[in-house]
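Case study 2.
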Amino acid sequence: MQYSFDEATTRRGTNSLKWDVGENELPMWVADMDFKAAPAVLQALQNKLNQGIFGYQTVPQEWYSAIISWWQTRHGTVIDKEWLCFCTGVIPAITSAVKRITNVGDSVVVQTPVYDIFFHSIENTGRHVLENKLAYKNGVYSFDFEDLAQKLAMPNTTMLILCNPINPAGKIPSAAELSKIGELCARHGVTVLSDEIHCDITALGREYVPFMSVSKACADISVTCMAASKAFNLAGLQSAAVCVPNAALRNKIFRGLNSDEVAEPNAFAVDATIAAFTEGGEWLDALRGYLFKNRAYAQQFIGNALPQIQIVRAEATYLLWLDCSKITDDAEKLCSFVRAYNGLYITAGNQYRGNGSKFVRINLACPRSTLTDGLNRFADGVRAYLLKERK
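Prediction:
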């Protein structure tokens, strides 16, 4: 089947968080896509809508089967039904896990630059963020295992939040890297909470490795958050799954999810997930091809128009992570200027900590015409910014 990702869909005036901007502004910031959901998902939602009744929902066997089959066929990982629990989103799951597995005053390790909401889940619950900054050289990020070992050995460190693949850098950790992370965490009694929401947005021919699949040691200390929401653009349906192989750890996590009242689905969440994971594979592969053509297009454009900006090589996500260190050491200042200058709304890397203050993040998940508009605005805005700074 042919899918048209070049079709532009108007999202202004639809209560969209992303598109709640000025009339002449172009939002390319928050990580949701400007594409309609997969036809199979739309049909499943239409079927539910046609019933006309939206009462309390249960989680049927089909939901478990869809997730188990997807991870088996797509990612070569066996999951038991008992390991899974529905949750209203990855972030509610992370916050709940932080509260159940750690104590107030504990330290939680994050590998920065990384998704900023992790910090909120930690700090808003009275815990402390402990940064294990990723090493960076020539447009490539790598893990600093020496620093990680030191941080994990600290007596108050009880959890590591892993982003797999990494947002915003687009790095897919290798099995060897994940094994070493697991080995270090197991040695120091640290639980690994792995956010794998971006796992299905990878370059064609490039697959991610689920943390829990690497070894028994990794499985025993892992809490994995997974969802169809990022790959199938379903974030507004508030749906995710939490997977915990270890029985003792699972009891704590699942009790927490239920106590926090984040383990019950809305009327559409379950049906959409089942449809995505049972009928959406062909659509997703077409989407992945389109997204990485967008990435190649953006890389060529920026390489020609703004050679002073280095593009971080990425194998996953639909996010472009740009090293602007030759232009500024304060990305917030640059992004604020560009938005005021021509309305392009992109994300300053400051909020991701680590070395993010010299980077900007641009969302590539849009029709090529939108991307072209955004890249032209970005180039014009950067040039204007440089002229202003030279005066």
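The radius of gyration is 21 Å.
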